[in-house]
């Protein structure tokens, strides 16, 4: 498979009211090239006639200053300043439902393109990405350290007061309620299911080899340090167990 | 300004303040928009594409070329054939299933997988529920952007390889168990990732190195599943068998279906449709089982909308999530469809629609609509215990009103469950399967030969 690596628009097209771009041209090009270099880019961007069917069916467009049509247009016309601007806030409005992708007559995937832009925002350590992701750090900690995204002890009335007074309509300690689920893998509180130690350690190798830890370090150094500690601890636990077998 | 949309002046058009209503009379508006309704509510909206290819053709060619190994669905898996949106065949295995659990379901709505396993026990379906699996990691990815195509592909291949070799722990051959994916996002993500793996040699090359490090190759090659199968597809293909076990008449129940975006909008060419189910204009899963059980499935105008989950939004932009869930789904299902229950087939949707009703009272939108997964409703209709199996106490929505309409004495069942909790406290814990089977290697593993 080949993918595009050249710009269709060579001349600078920017905001005519602005004397200079907020960020240097070189940086803008670098960001765009990162987005464009992903193998998914050419599958997810095939052209655009501005029909707007994506925006018409977009849930986020109901509530935010966000339009998937605009995102596709920015990428299609290679409007580097516009792309950079959209990466400050707009890309984080998308709810990732892929309704836009299902409906697009050109088989574009605006939702998929948004993911490439989010990845680029992280890679370049944009402050906007750091701010947006700060409240999500507990989820990232759980996922990267255990391989589970959500755990029963994360869902509590303090964390989710808008979900109503009862997390469970039967009043009993969480541990007992979890033991009363008739699947032994689910008799847990700190992970959604019991994850084998060897499984977690395999996952750490995936994170390391695919650059996920690097992403994490860029976006949240403290979280990165905490996760490294957990990884070391679990690897040691596994080594100890393996030594016991010998 | 009263816009006449019943939203007390609130606008959800996204057009900005310069927008003006056309003030058409209702009959004029009907004429003006009739063509839209004729198009948008039809399956043709999804199929009117030029370049759709069946990725499986390329997959078989890659296997012939010696690039990959395909995990096949064989006769031993007793497959049934479904038709996808383009009329293509899709093999759905019905037994020897490896449960690929959902972190959101297991963490938050555990009656969802428990109901599935309970029904499988009722039907003598062979399965394995084990600890050697991670989540697909796609919830985090779609919410945060942490992750990438290589990490998603490596996790997919790693988990599916484990499904392939898992039966070794019981002295059974490789490929014995076939993965059944519980989560809609995992299902959509895995299908998307499988397509990219098949299309892209550079991606295969990169990921192969990672899988080699993990010892997760088959004959030195990547293992790709013949089909990625969602549990709702299993339910759909087994719907007649499930209905044969029904003990409760549910013909008085008005059900609305929320089809999950990642089940049928993500890689839509793989979604199952049936001309006999809502004219083939809606994805068939969930509607099929609800009709088979005898409920009245009511169509509603916002059926196509997502639930508002948003991945990151449900955690840290909850105003969007709850507003969308209430205004675009719950309110419509209650006011327009007079629904007794909303049925879904995905983790995030059930969570969003179930949990985000209570807060509506703060703005005078005190709608109350029970929300369950299709398999939970099916289990209830087949006599499953509402608390021990369906675990309805974890649902914030008013599942009690649904149970009353079904003739289930939920108060008595709740007392039974509370008594059972005392036994649990004393260490008498019931399980749907032999707990020793859950660990297939590593710490805690004990070999148990399969009978």
Key attributes of the depicted protein:
heterodimer, A: 246 residues, mainly alpha, disordered N terminus, B: 451 residues, Glutathione S-transferase Yfyf (Class Pi), Chain A, domain 2, Rossmann fold, 2 domains, four-stranded parallel beta sheet, 19 helices, 11 strands
Q: Describe it for me?
A:
The complex is a heterodimer of chains A (246) and B (451). Chain A is mainly α. Chain A has helices spanning 25-37, 41-44, 53-56, 59-63, 68-76, 80-86, 99-103, 110-123, 127-133, 137-146, 174-179, 197-209, 212-219, 221-245. In chain A, 53% of the residues lie in helices and 0% in strands. Residues 1-5 of chain A have low confidence and may be disordered. Chain A has 2 domains: 25-124, Fumarate Reductase Iron-sulfur Protein, Chain B, domain 2 (Orthogonal Bundle), CATH 1.10.1060.10; 133-245, no CATH class. In chain A, helix 1 (25-37) packs across helix 6 and helix 5 crosses helix 8. Chain A contains 14 helices and no strands. Chain B has 451 residues and is an alpha/beta fold. Chain B folds into 2 domains: 58-232, Up-down Bundle (Glutathione S-transferase Yfyf (Class Pi), Chain A, domain 2), CATH 1.20.1050.140; 247-423, 3-Layer(aba) Sandwich (Rossmann fold), CATH 3.40.50. Chain B is 41% helix and 9% strand. Chain B contains 19 helices and 11 strands. In chain B, the strands form 4 sheets. In chain B, strands 9-8-10-11 form a 4-stranded parallel β-sheet. In chain B, strand 2 (80-83) and strand 3 (89-92) form a beta hairpin. In chain B, helix 5 packs across helix 17 (374-381) and helix 7 (149-165) crosses helix 8.
